[in-house]
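tool_call: predict_structure(chain=1)
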Amino acid sequence: MIMRHRSTSPTLAATLVGMALATAAPTPGMAQGQGRVPLVLAIPESFPDVEGRVVLLREPGRDVVLLRATDATPETLSVALTLRRRLDATTPRREQQGQMVPVTGYARRIPLVAEEQERLSAVLAELEARETVSLGRLGRGRAMTFRDREG
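tool_result:
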């Protein structure tokens, strides 16, 4: 798969990380093995004013995937999860700063396999069924913790 993403200014990243994490705090013990930080999936009712189909927010204690309501598809979620895995493998986390990585576009070379399509569809259905809650400065939206499987 081909992804286009870009890092955004540390100030904007820190602001958005703080906004997204105000109420989507995972419980202790949610670390995802081998030093992986917890992951929160969120669909804000009002997406931040950031160019991107999906935004990955990284901070020392957790990651957040912000999905646009109009683009919350298994393919888009798969791209965000793949990007997260690549960044975990290649880019050290900043100890004091968050990082915001918008994905402005992507093109799949091969479609998702049926099993992965079904798994991610079920995850998105669960997320969309959640009650709307406050996402801090992002306003209202849906959020849930998610355990991403490796690879």
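agent: The radius of gyration is 14 Å. Proceeding to next step.
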